[in-house]
Amino acid sequence: MGEKTEFEPGDKVPNDGVYMEVGEKSFHTEIQNPQQVTLERGDSFPKTANHNRKWKKKTKARVH
Description:
The protein has 64 residues and is an all-beta fold. It has strands at 6-7, 17-22, 36-39, 54-57. It comes from Paenibacillus peoriae.
């Protein structure tokens, strides 16, 4: 099994880094001015601006 890449608000942060909001299906969804947060391992993800959004590590949150 692979490592989880999308996280819900309240989930624990697996690794230090910058995380940003993505749409449910980031492949199809472009978000204008997504939230970005710098978190450390063990922190909890904050709420997103919309219930359909999730958190993803910035290096993996590329739009195709």
